[in-house]
Amino acid sequence: MRRWGVVACCLLILLAAWGLPASAENSLVQDVRVVNTGTVPADEEFVRSHIQTVPGRNMDAAQISRDVKALLSTERFTTVNAAMEPGTNGVVVVFAVNPRVRLSDAVEVTGNRRLSGRKIRALVELQPGDVVDDNVLAVRTRKVVDEYRYRKRCPDAAVRWEIKPVAGGDPGVVTVKLTVSEGNRYRFGKVAFEGNTSLPESDIRKAFRIRPWWNPVGWFSRPRFDAAELSAGRQIIRDMYLQKGCLDAEVGMPEVRWETNGTLTVATRVSEGISYRLGKVTVEGNTLFPASELAPLAVTKSGEVAADGTIRNISRAIRDFYGSRGYVNTVVRPARDSSTNGMLDVRFQVTEGNLVNLRNVVIRGNARTRDKVIRREILVYPGEIYNEVKIGTSERRLMNLGYFDQVRSYPESTRLPDTRDLVFEVEEKRTGQFMVGAGFSSIDKMMGFMEISQGNFDIKGWPYFTGGGQKLKLRAQVGSRREDYELSFVEPWFLDRKLSLGVDLYHSRVSYDEYDVRRRGTALTLGKGLPWANRLTLTYRLEEVTLSDIVDTNTYFFVEDPSREFRFNQDKERVNSSLTLALTHDTRDNPFVPTRGNRMSVFSQASGGLLGFDTEIYGLGAQGAWYFPLWLRHVFSLRAKYETVDSYGDLDQVPVDERLFMGGGRTLRGFDYRNVGPKVARTVTSEDGTQYETTHPVGGQSMAMVNAEYWIPVVTGIRLAGFVDVGNAWLEPYEFNSGDTASSAGVGIRFDIPGFPIRIDRGWILRKDDQYTGADEIVFWVGYDF
Fold it and tell me: Are strands 173-181 and 250-251 parallel, antiparallel or unpaired?
């Protein structure tokens, strides 16, 4: 706007000069006047101090133009104009200025009901001290009108403003009052697509994010129906037609019509064309490789829909075939050959690139991350061919490290025509985190936590200790029922091999109703990635375990087998030396809130024996979780788990802290925490001689569980859920009895807050495992889904 104002001022100066006599350019400046065209006083001395045009000098149009620019550059004037008038002894130069005013207080808002004053002030983005005028307010209030029109569906909304000087104050300071006229609110009526026969209305509504009344997402968010969203919806609809083989489909620009009956209609016209099916698919232009090698890349099913995605995939496969063999800049263009009765023959025309070799691999942009950390993720090396497929995979591997905001690769020419340098240019981001917070869970009660982590740690990188690709985490969590302290270090390339080494030091204390358990120790973990999304880990753990604050030291008897005794104070202090081997298969799309894929694992664990010390137990287990994406971003998940543990050697029974418990938010919701499964009991005589039986859960030596859950996204970071849980724990190892399982069902809500996710579940018990099992209907805890 300022640039056009300067151009206009220059034109005014030239026009004024043409209106003067021919000798005006050589005339003297008789006088210079300053005229105020604004509503607040202008500082005339300030104006004169910034111009070079003064009385007594020859009139210079170029200098006057520079004076106008100088005044505008001070940003104290909304507009500056210059004009020349003939005088008695020369020329009078007149500078007309409109001083800017500044806002004294927050913008006042009246007349608003559907938008809060805070929201409106956030849209206009004006703070005390900002410059305001009619032009500024015209632009800023447009955002408010658009919010009413497209979000609140008030097409007649209008905003008027009033600029008032502050009474008795600085004349350059004003207040602004916005008066909102909201008008009537329209409701959504229908989607009117003329010419549409192939797409159901539900798909069209989804393209514009119009949810049916029963979908909770629509209760919390509404489509805007502005130009950007209509254009995006139009592209989505066209893509739907392309995937149906309607390659000639044309979709008009949708428009919003406000009907007289108080509804709005999203309307557009569609020309679908023919829905093609693939006929003969051929490849031509190939000279470097025989057709027999390229033909398998273009194989399609007879009569398959000629979807745009299918055609693109074939083009990409052919291009990757050449790219993986070093032929750079190969171009593949699909062309329609002929069409008969809707059957479309497609030719893929190949323009073969040149064979290129790699001279050097260059890393740029890494100020902290060491070259070594980047190079070990790159799959191509100097002297090899320029493999475009491996280069693309290398880019993705570097992005997956989490150290960079952006990674891009490109070739650089060398003196040799068939040789290139490959450049990986990275843009680093912050990799350290500090988190502190407090929370509450129905299991751990009140708790506070602090965590310091560095995802790109370098143990040798003094003084900043970053850039080595290692991971360091220090976490402390203290609550009314538990406390945890952990120091964790991971080297993902141990001995410069794709072998991870993890070192953990920890101390924990957990209070249960019957006893407290304290564990402190260390763990060493070696992990190796295997093909097909598999990973093998071996963990050695050495820890000291202490039971304290035992509620009852009397002898109890198992409810399931009264002939067997149990005492809580047995094995109060011991040392556990264990080795665990686990194999994991993980194809989830997200490790925290997955929407597709699966994660399965099996493990075996042994303590004591050749590993020494006084805990001789072993355990086996397997579990799996599967995630299935459904319509409207809904997700169905299924989780199953089986585990068993047993003692051997001199140990008579499995220690109580190593037994398997069920019940609570992480296993069977709706039941008391750890209350499902084997229990012990004894008869107690009170002071008045009354006898009663007291029971306590002690866990089992085998357990099984199945959990099914259905997620519904509401808004970003919030999900609703419905679930069914089935499972139990049994007294003997390797035991499983489907006839005495406990089960529950319920609903919940998930708040996916990064670093502090919250789950709230309401469970109803469908069936108990025994009469002693208690209920806990509301489960509140912090953590991701299992």
Answer: unpaired
DSSP 495: G
| Per-residue pLDDT at 1 exceeds 50 | no
39: β partners: none
For the chain, the C-alpha Rg in angstroms (whole number) is: 38
Cis peptide before 463 (omega within 30 of 0): yes
List CB contacts of 450: < 8 A, sequence separation 6 or more. 435, 436, 475, 476, 477
Give 293's contacts (C-beta < 8 A, 6+ positions apart): 321
d(CA 576, CA 651): 12
Structure tokens at 402: 């989490």
Per-residue pLDDT reduced to its tens digit, 59-82: 888 899 999 999 988 878 888 999
Instruction: For 313-358, write each residue's pLDDT tens digit.
Output: 999 999 999 999 999 999 999 998 877 788 899 999 999 999 999 9
* Sign (positive or negative) of CA dihedral 306, 312, 314, 318: positive
Please report the pLDDT score of residue 457 as a whole number: 95
Q: Which two tokens stand for residue 612?
A: 């020494």
* String of DSSP letters for 112-134: -SSS-HHHHHHHHT--TT-EE-H
Q: Which of 606, 605, 609, 599 is nearest to 621 (CA)?
A: 605
- Would you say 535 and 499 are in contact if contact means Cβ atoms under 8 Å apart? no
CA distances from 552 to 105, 226, 659, 696 (A): 68, 69, 18, 10
DSSP state, residue 298: G
* Cβ-contact 681, 693 below 8 angstroms: yes
* Mean local confidence (pLDDT), 684-699: 77
| Structural contact between residues 331 and 362, judged by C-beta atoms closer than 8 angstroms | no
19 pLDDT higher than 50: no
User: What pLDDT does 18 receive?
Assistant: 41
Q: Which amino acid is at 122?
A: A
Structure token digits, residue 483: 């406390």
375-380: long-range contacts at Cβ-Cβ below 8 A with a sequence spacing of 24 or more?
Answer: 376/493, 376/496, 377/401, 378/424, 380/422
Measured between alpha carbons, how far is 500 from 493 in angstroms, rounded to an integer? Answer: 5
Give the tens place of pLDDT for each residue, 146-186. Answer: 989 888 888 889 999 998 888 776 767 889 999 999 988 88
Whose tokens are 């699909």? That residue is: 334
